[in-house]
């Protein structure tokens, strides 16, 4: 696809780099910042996972054993916030930082100082959020969706901390998105035309536009919550002429594109890995780009499918049902494309490929339950039950998180220069695959049988499934520690790898040496 | 062929899951025409998804098994085919249209709440339901009746653990019953799976839903929208009776309401003993107050104030009665004036003023509560 004409790397000795903590605090290098994002995201994944363990421990059997319902609500809320804003989104931003400049032949991100800033405000955001858990009254307990008036009139006094934390996360995301767009638009190597861009770059470009469009909406929503609660406004208070349902429209106008923000880069990663290990070109590059764009456009006109039970005119319900069903068309195109890429390939099953195959199957399962949820009359039965919990964990855990794992295993040798411990990684994959299904699959059943979500205790007919779910949850949680071990070991040492780590891989990132030098493509390569 | 058989038997297994009605692992068929339509929709879309899944994954796993490098497979070079791509865009689209038609029909039927035989106003509040039979002058609260000991694992859990209430909503079968949903505080959602009715109760707004139950029976549901600490503890129980029995019940309920009013009036001249008031008070406190203020009276710091050692509880009587009757706007403290009788309020105030080390020794009589109620009414006029 491309040839590297000039691979002059800067001599690191000419470079003045501070050592120790300052190196990381002051860094404007896209690789350093990418690593920071990824380490931060992994840390948050463990913290958010620990909260999920608390939830599953309480739900292991009926009755209230470990935590009181108020704390339980804080756990579900903060688990959601941390996993969305702390684990999945920073992981994708980290991968973007590391890979986009290397994939398009750029020396760095276009706005390196802003890059530093957009990462370093994140730890503060999450410190504020986590600290609120230890204050009198506790942290946010109104669900990650913070529906008013539960989050305004009826929330505790620490809600301001939640608001500020979300503000900072939003600013960080917007800055990250601006950086991605400016980099891709301006810093492509000569010859890297739009329709030659690697798909990971394409999907991230579209994601970045989504981020810029909807993060300000979230900022508006939390600001109105803040003024309603502390300054006597009535945006969402019917008694003052406001409207609590309007909150949900605003929130989901952000929230629905947000779920595509968490899955489009995943599509990019899978579209990179599947061709590599099938040793065959992606079946329909152009249709993948168009499918991604149509998903992004449609994501703006389906938000109210989260609100069918809120009370909507019939015409509104019909419109949002049809629009939502329509999304399955471009999503189907993607899945068919991956399968067609594998068809008559020469397939091998390295760890990244294993995660990608698991992604395709399990994400599609999540897609099916999504299609079922789109059918409004049936949604009245599914809505706010464990069926929904199963649905979004299939698309976010076996979808987004599995794609991140796949990407991490795929590029880890390039980052570190070492092959990871393959045996350990295989254990990680198979244990995760089995436990994640024990964890989330039975949730479909309890949901259909009528168990509402976000409850700390439940009726006796749900007891057996909940015990199984909890066991799956603990197993999945513990399995992730293996991933931490693999990454740690790989960073410390291991078998050296060649520049092109995977024999079927294509792209500029495989033409620089392994580990990737601190500065790459100071002189742009020429792409033919 | 083996794989084919496995797929077919798996499919049959799924079908048999679907065939079991009201199972523990599938949607309930329910007891209304609508709920059965919804169930059919659910099973249809589920089976369509299964078929698509089986086909797509069969192709994929065929490739994974037969096109492996270790088997000597050499990668073909084909890519992009407009024909195939149009095909796999068009076919799903047609399936969607086929799916949308019955879904639209059912939805239109569900949203038509006109020509109802009976209208019931359903009001959610933290964490109970209030039912008002419009134009029948019958209304009551419906509160979880599962004892706290069962939740704390101090007693064996009953058959309907967390799905039982002190007073069920009674409706007639074979009649179109319309529900008007609203809320006194946060958003709740009234859900009875057997009716396929789930509608949010929004403060300041009224939502409509309806049902026409075909079979006599007891139907249980739960609040479906996170509404604060005890969201998991506000179940819904509907007792569907034949129209004749429903009429009997309605007459009885009206009579009962009258008797209660008379009993309250009779209390005004009586002086109750401290023991009696404390007993009533403890019962009321555990049923209505303990969810927030805790059985220990310690509250939840930063969320719900403590009763133990509280200045309000040990201070002047008037503000104490006032907050119980009218609540405190802008907080979770509800107005209990409408929910509790004057005897219950007198009891619970006496209880709070003489428990957990609060030691005022005061005994508050129902007549004192009534005096405050009357004073409030005068103020309003």
From TrEMBL, chain A:
UniProt name for this protein: Cytochrome c oxidase subunit 1
A molecular function GO annotation: metal ion binding
Record field: transmembrane: 36-57, 77-98, 119-142, 162-187, 199-226, 246-270, 282-306, 318-339, 351-375, 387-412, 424-445, 465-488
A GO cellular-component term linked to this record: plasma membrane
Topology of the protein relative to the lipid bilayer: Multi-pass membrane protein
Pathway this chain belongs to: Energy metabolism; oxidative phosphorylation
Primary localization: membrane
Alphabetical list of InterPro entries matching this protein: Cyt_c_oxase-like_su1_dom (IPR023616), Cyt_c_oxase-like_su1_sf (IPR036927), Cyt_C_Oxase_1 (IPR000883), Cyt_c_Oxase_su1_BS (IPR023615), Cyt_c_oxase_su1_dom (IPR033944), Cyt_c_oxidase_su1_bac (IPR014241)
NCBIfam families: CtaD_CoxA
Encoding gene, per UniProt annotation: ctaD
UniProt cross-references to Gene3D superfamilies, sorted A to Z: Cytochrome c oxidase-like, subunit I domain (1.20.210.10)
Keywords: Cell membrane, Copper, Electron transport, Heme, Iron, Membrane, Metal-binding, Respiratory chain, Translocase, Transmembrane, Transmembrane helix, Transport
Enzyme nomenclature, EC number: 7.1.1.9
Localization of this protein: Cell membrane; Membrane
Enzyme class: translocase
Domain Cytochrome oxidase subunit I profile: 24-528
Superkingdom per UniProt: Bacteria
Catalysed reaction equations from the record: 4 Fe(II)-[cytochrome c] + O2 + 8 H(+)(in) = 4 Fe(III)-[cytochrome c] + 2 H2O + 4 H(+)(out)
PANTHER family per UniProt: CYTOCHROME C OXIDASE SUBUNIT 1
Gene Ontology biological process terms in this record: electron transport coupled proton transport; oxidative phosphorylation; respiratory electron transport chain
Function in brief: Cytochrome c oxidase is the component of the respiratory chain that catalyzes the reduction of oxygen to water. Subunits 1-3 form the functional core of the enzyme complex. CO I is the catalytic subunit of the enzyme. Electrons originating in cytochrome c are transferred via the copper A center of subunit 2 and heme A of subunit 1 to the bimetallic center formed by heme A3 and copper B.
Protein family per UniProt: Belongs to the heme-copper respiratory oxidase family.
UniProtKB/TrEMBL annotation, chain B:
GO terms for biological process, alphabetical: ATP synthesis coupled electron transport
Domain of life assignment: Bacteria
Membrane topology label: Multi-pass membrane protein
Location in or out of the cell: Cell membrane; Membrane
Record keywords, A-Z: Copper, Electron transport, Heme, Iron, Membrane, Metal-binding, Respiratory chain, Signal, Translocase, Transmembrane, Transmembrane helix, Transport
Secretion signal, residue range per the UniProt entry: 1-20
Entry EC number(s): 7.1.1.9
Domain Cytochrome c: 276-356
Domain Cytochrome oxidase subunit II copper A binding residue range list: 115-252
Family the UniProt entry places it in: Belongs to the cytochrome c oxidase subunit 2 family.
Free-text function comment from the UniProt entry: Subunits I and II form the functional core of the enzyme complex. Electrons originating in cytochrome c are transferred via heme a and Cu(A) to the binuclear center formed by heme a3 and Cu(B).
Protein name, per record: Cytochrome c oxidase subunit 2
Upper taxonomic lineage: Bacteria, Pseudomonadati, Pseudomonadota, Gammaproteobacteria, Alteromonadales
